[in-house]
Amino acid sequence: MFTNFSDFNFEVIDVLVTKTDPEIIINKNAITLSLKLLEELGKPQFIRPLVDFQNKAFALRVCKESDSKALKLRNTKEKVEKSRSISCVAVRKILRRLMKETWKDDKRYRLIGTIFPKEKAVAFDLTQAEELEGYPKRQKKSYKKYSSI
What we know:
By secondary structure, this protein is mainly beta. The chain has two helices and ten strands, in the order ββαββββαββββ. Strands 6-2-1-7-10 form a five-stranded antiparallel β-sheet. The longest helix is centred in the middle third of the chain and has 10 residues, at 89-98.
């Protein structure tokens, strides 16, 4: 059946590569921070979310545990070797409410950030978000039933 590769109509699958851009992906249940973003910020343990309503901007700034409204990204001894997700409902709701005229509830959004090293922060222009397809569907686990012997 498979004799010539050229007989197929393959299409390239759109795969998100997060190693090159300091980016976040906002979805229904979480905000995912890319490994590149975390590395650019110095692999912080805590961050503080910031919003500029007038300019429709979102930022994350490195902070200390003792700072007000600090979000924990990792434990002290935990290594940062992959992207991280934060599931702060308040942050997601504020961003989606701010962008309600252009963002759709059933879509995910990718934002590339601008790093401000001196401030230990990254800022995102919410109006420049790239719309991604809906949420990947999880496959249900199938369990085999065994009869008792």
